[in-house]
């Protein structure tokens, strides 16, 4: 029996059991990915109108997380050579999934899966920026670093912000001095040369000609463009055909203003004015939307 068939059978008796406007799903983690995509749209619609902090809001948000954990497992497969860290990878990937859920809007007109995966992979890559100890650190502090990393992730989700030293100390039942010592020791983590070959025992996936630097996480400038592109899409539909064609020729096909002018039978100066006016219209729309 396929997971999709199993879900359909499970969902039918629940048509009368709802949380507000949402169907009750007993085990969201067992929903097949195909069904999860459709159900996620329903839950996102309600999430946008529900009051944050209510039981209904928490149910919608938690169900979305559980239904889409398969995206985290999918992204984690890219790092399957690090089996000893798989649990940590899934945990940090889940943080990325939660961030994506909190920032996603149906008005973006993009599949949630496409929106979420960059967030998930980004969190995992940032996790791998710490791969080895730069200086000798006692085993006690090495283990404390791992505890702190997990505690910080758990509390960040619960508090929706970075935890303080006191909150970490209470969570781990340690003194604040021990927490500070662990945080300082964590700065000694990561020292391997970025020029090392990827298959030199560093744990990076083997690939001919690749170095460790190819797998080190960093702030991806393209991540900042994701939301801009989705916000820009509906604004493009407000342009007339000529404005859209000129934008496509200038920035899609990279033609010069003179070449575009020849196609439209107008001067380069006229094309320049149309571009300036069109870009100003889009810029104003982006600022108003923000």
From TrEMBL:
Q: Biological process (GO) annotations?
A: DNA-templated transcription initiation
Keyword vocabulary terms for this entry: DNA-binding, Sigma factor, Transcription, Transcription regulation
UniProt cross-references to Gene3D superfamilies, sorted A to Z? 1.20.120.1810, Winged helix-like DNA-binding domain superfamily/Winged helix DNA-binding domain
Task: Spell out the NCBIfam families in the cross-references.
Answer: SigBFG, sigma70-ECF
One term of GO molecular function:
sigma factor activity
Know the name of this protein? RNA polymerase subunit sigma
Q: Domain RNA polymerase sigma-70 spans what residues?
A: 88-101
């Amino acid at each position: 029996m396929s997971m999709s068939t199993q879900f359909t059978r499970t969902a039918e008796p629940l048509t009368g059991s709802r949380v507000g406007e949402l169907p009750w799903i007993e085990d969201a983690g067992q929903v097949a990915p195909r069904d999860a995509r459709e159900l996620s749209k329903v839950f996102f619609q309600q999430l946008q109108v529900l009051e944050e902090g209510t039981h209904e809001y928490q149910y919608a948000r938690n169900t979305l997380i559980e239904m889409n954990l398969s995206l985290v497992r999918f992204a984690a497969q890219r790092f399957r050579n690090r089996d000893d860290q798989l649990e940590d990878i899934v945990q940090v990937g889940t943080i990325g999934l939660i961030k994506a859920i909190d920032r996603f809007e149906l008005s973006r007109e993009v599949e949630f899966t496409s929106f979420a995966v960059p967030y998930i992979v980004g969190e995992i890559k940032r996790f791998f920026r710490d791969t080895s100890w730069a200086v000798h650190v006692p085993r006690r502090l090495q283990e404390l670093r791992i505890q702190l990393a997990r505690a910080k992730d758990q509390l960040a989700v619960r508090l929706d912000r970075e935890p303080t030293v006191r909150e970490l100390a209470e969570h781990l039942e340690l003194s604040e001095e021990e927490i500070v010592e662990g945080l300082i020791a964590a700065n000694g983590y990561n020292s391997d040369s970025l020029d090392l070959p990827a298959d030199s025992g560093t744990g990076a996936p083997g690939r001919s000609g690749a170095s460790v630097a190819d797998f080190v996480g960093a702030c991806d400038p393209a991540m900042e463009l994701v939301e801009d592109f989705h916000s820009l899409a509906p604004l493009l539909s407000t342009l007339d055909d000529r404005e859209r064609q000129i934008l496509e020729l200038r920035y899609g096909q990279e033609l010069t203003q003179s070449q575009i002018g020849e196609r439209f039978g107008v001067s380069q100066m006229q094309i320049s004015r149309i571009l300036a006016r069109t870009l100003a219209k889009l810029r104003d729309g982006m600022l108003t939307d923000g």
